[in-house]
C-alpha cells in the first residue's frame, strides 16, 4: 500500500467525526445513509466513508452482513427523485482488520446552493455539531442580546405594517412545506464563509441568528443560513438590526443524534438598522417624558400637603434631568427650571391665599 493511500486511510480511520465527515460500517442499511448525505448537502458539504467502524476499525465490505457497494451507489437514484443530489464515489483498496484485501467507499457530497434537499422520508436534515450551538449561546450572552429585542416590539410591528413594509404576523409564521416568516433582531455577528461547488466555483454562505417573540411574548432564537446570492443582503446585517426573513425550516442532527432547527433563507429584508431603532427609541422616550412631566406638574397644584408637593417637585426634577440628558439642551434646562419655579410660586400664592380667607370670615361674623 502506497504512503499516499496509507495517509488517506489513517485520516478516514482517525479523523474526528464532525459536520463535514462521518464513517459507517458496511452493515448500515443503504437507506439509512441518506439522512447523513442529505444533511451534508443542506449544510456545507461533506464526506461519508463506508467500510470503517465508528472506532476506526477497517472492516471493509468482506465482512458478515455487509451490503454491496452498488447498493449504496444506487440508493440515490431510487429514493431521492424529488430533490436529487449528485454525489461522487471513490473506491479505495485497503487491508481490513483480518489482513485481507478489501475496499472502502468514500461518498463526497457538495453543498446544494440552489435548493433544499429532502430525504426519502420527506424530512429536511442539516448536520451541525453541538459545540457550534454552544458557541452561539455564548456569543448571545456575551453580547447582552436580551436588551436588543425592541421594548416596543408590538408598536414597531404595527408601525411597519401601516407603512406596508410587512404584512405577516405573528413574528414567526408557519406556512406549508415548513416555510416560515420571521421578524426579529439579529443576534451577534454574521459569519460569512466562502465555499466551492463541485465545479470549483466559489459562493458565499452567511450564517447568523435572529431572536423574535412568540405569541406569548417569549423570546425564540433561530439559526439561519443564506447561500449564494441569497446571502447578498444578510451578509451586511449587524447585531441588533431589525429584519424580516422568509425561509425553509430544516431539522438538524448533531453528533449525538439530537435534532435542532435551522432556517435556510430564501429572501431577507432589513426593516430598521440598529442605529435607526436607537433614534426611534430616543424620540419615543422624550415624548413620553414630556407627557409625564406635564401630568406631574398638574398634580402639583392639587397636592394635599407641603410634603406631598415636595415629593412631586422631586419627581419632576428627576424627569427633567433625564429629559435634559436625552436632548442635551442647556436652554431646555433653564426653561425647565423656570417652569418648575413658576409652578411652585403659583402653588405658594394659592396656598397663602387660603389662610387669609379663613381669617377674614370670623371678622365678618363679629360685625
TrEMBL record:
UniProt entry keywords in alphabetical sequence: DNA-binding
Keyword Cell inner membrane carried by entry: no
Molecular function as annotated in GO: single-stranded DNA binding
Pfam families attached to this UniProt entry: SLFN_AlbA_2
Disordered as annotated region, ranges: 326-367
Basic and acidic residues bias (residue ranges): 330-339, 347-367
Occurrences of domain Schlafen AlbA-2 (ranges): 17-131
Transmembrane segments: none
InterPro entries per record: NA-bd_OB-fold, Primosome_PriB/ssb, Schlafen_AlbA_2_dom, Schlafen_AlbA_2_dom_sf
Name this protein carries in UniProt: Schlafen AlbA-2 domain-containing protein
Organism, as annotated: Johnsonella ignava ATCC 51276
